[in-house]
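Service request form, structural biology core

Requester: graduate student, group of Dr. S.
Request type: structure prediction, single chain
Budget code: on file
Notes: please return the result as structure tokens.

Sequence provided:
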Amino acid sequence: VQLVESGGGSVQAGGSLRLSCARSGGVLSQYCMGWFRQGPGQEREEVASVDTDGNHKYADDVLGRFTISRDNAKNTVSLQMNSLKSEDTALYYCVMGDTTDFRYWGQGTQVTVSS
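Core staff response, request fulfilled:
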């Protein structure tokens, strides 16, 4: 299983970025999908997830700012990030699993927010 993230970069506080994740060589429609992140000196944390029924879950500190979506026809999952803060700076990972116990991880894409 190969998950490939894209869309990371540098942005000023208050700006937006959209991360995308594609599965290479397979479909993701029957899997739970999500995004984790790990900031400098911090533990890895779950940011958002969406199950196969389209139910979403968000970390408290991104609720209302981030939106996860899946496009099964395009075999992608995205994370729209608005009103970015410096504390959102992290390496963001796309994850996939049969349940929300995610077994498969991408390599990560860096998001840097400057204040």
